[in-house]
């Protein structure tokens, strides 16, 4: 049975909050070179993440969410390769780091929580052993006794009780929710400045999912870390994120503050995601509307907007040319020819009125 999340200890605050940009991704392009051809998994995405901010990256399976995350943390596997763009962390060029520098960078500066904790925890080692090993791999000066003490503190921090006994147990002796808490503890044990959470609540039931989200929000406020939260669940986005990047076919089609994305979406794909999601605040019964069609073939992506073949508003230009970003508000932009057309019409109307 799951335990309720414990109150976080005040002495575990890492440092005072900072201002400014923690992470900058500019025109990142990632491809997989397969025998069938080049799969353009990420096609030139850009976003910024400030200290203490939570960025949600939303999109269906195959949109490139996890690939860009693996690129940030240096875990992109062959035949995948970053072919363009830049990733800057606190002004450091991440892509220029050597393999040894990336090993030190992971865990100490950036940590990642993976989607399935059972495949990430070693079944033949105790949970305590794995937490201690993760800490000592990045902090050579810490003693085994102090590392064990820190590991127990982190388990308490993420809401696990009876930590002395739990430290001696193996992953199969933990429930799914508890294993996910262990993964969060492992990610946070070196006090990283950035946490990448790759759909950490997908395999959990809604009750445990709510507990994990509440835990992550509390940890984020307490430690002031930035979070990149990858998910396909817009309900999770509404719960935890400050701003959102909506990805489709390797491109960011819309970005903005979370309220703008939910209440004034600017791209048909975002509208489609919202229409296909049940709403608890609906005034009456509403039929969910699925997004028609199938995702594009990334071996042969379209010339224009990747969503055009599935878009009910598609025009001829949508199939021929990728639309530019149109600013819809403060920090809110969308790559859609409909928005371009609206902007042109608005300028014409303003000129007529003048």
Instruction: List low-confidence stretches.
Output: 1-11
> How far is the first residue's CA from the last residue's CA?
68 Å
Question: By CATH's scheme, which homologous superfamily of the largest domain applies?
Answer: P-loop containing nucleotide triphosphate hydrolases
CA radius of gyration is 22 Å
CATH architecture descriptor of the largest domain: 3-Layer(aba) Sandwich
Strand content: 15-25%
* Helix/sheet category: alpha/beta
| Helix and strand pattern | EEEHEEHEHHHHHEHEHEEHHHEEH
Number of individual domains: 2
For the secondary structure, the number of strands is 12
CATH class of the largest domain: Alpha Beta
Q: Please tell me the overall pLDDT.
A: 86
What form results from the Cα inertia axes? Answer: globular
The CATH topology name of the largest domain reads Rossmann fold
Mind summarizing the main beta sheet? Answer: 8 strands, mixed
User: How much helicity do the residues have?
Assistant: 25-40%
Strand order, sheet with most strands: 6-7-8-3-9-10-12-11
| Number of H- or I-type helical stretches | 13
Membrane topology: Peripheral membrane protein
Subcellular location: Cell membrane
Protein name: ABC transporter ATP-binding protein
GO molecular function, one term: ATP hydrolysis activity
């Amino acid at each position: 049975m799951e335990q309720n999340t414990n109150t976080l200890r005040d002495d575990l605050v890492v440092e005072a909050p900072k201002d400014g940009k923690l992470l900058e991704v500019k025109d990142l392009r990632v491809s997989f070179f397969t025998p069938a051809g080049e799969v353009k998994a990420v096609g030139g995405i850009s976003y910024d993440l400030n200290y203490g901010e939570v960025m949600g990256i939303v999109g269906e399976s195959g949109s490139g969410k996890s690939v860009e995350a693996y690129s940030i943390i240096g875990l992109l596997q062959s035949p995948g390769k970053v072919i363009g763009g830049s990733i800057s962390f606190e002004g450091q060029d991440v892509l220029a780091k050597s393999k040894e520098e990336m090993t030190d960078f992971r865990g100490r500066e950036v940590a990642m929580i993976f989607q399935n904790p059972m495949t990430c925890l070693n079944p033949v080692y105790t949970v305590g052993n794995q937490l201690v090993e993760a800490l000592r791999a990045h902090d050579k000066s810490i003693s085994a006794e102090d590392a064990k003490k820190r590991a127990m503190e982190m388990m308490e921090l993420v809401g696990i009780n009876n930590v002395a006994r739990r430290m001696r147990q193996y992953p199969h002796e933990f429930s799914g929710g508890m294993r996910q808490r262990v993964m969060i503890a492992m990610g946070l044990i070196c006090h990283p400045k950035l946490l990448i959470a790759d759909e950490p609540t997908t395999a959990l039931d809604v009750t445990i999912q709510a507990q994990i989200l509440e835990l992550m929000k509390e940890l984020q406020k307490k430690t002031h870390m930035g979070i990149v939260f990858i998910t396909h669940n817009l309900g999770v986005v509404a719960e935890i994120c400050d701003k959102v990047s909506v990805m489709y076919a390797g491109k960011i089609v819309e970005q903005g503050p979370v309220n703008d994305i939910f209440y004034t979406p600017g791209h048909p794909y975002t509208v489609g995601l919202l229409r296909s999601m049940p709403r608890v605040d609906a005034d009456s019964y509403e039929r969910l509307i699925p997004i028609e069609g199938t995702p594009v073939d990334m071996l042969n992506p379209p010339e224009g907007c990747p969503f055009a073949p599935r878009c009910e508003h598609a025009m001829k230009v949508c199939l021929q040319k990728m639309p530019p970003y149109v600013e819809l508000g403060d920090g809110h932009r969308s790559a859609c020819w409909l928005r371009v057309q609206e902007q042109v019409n608005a300028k014409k109307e303003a000129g007529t009125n003048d």
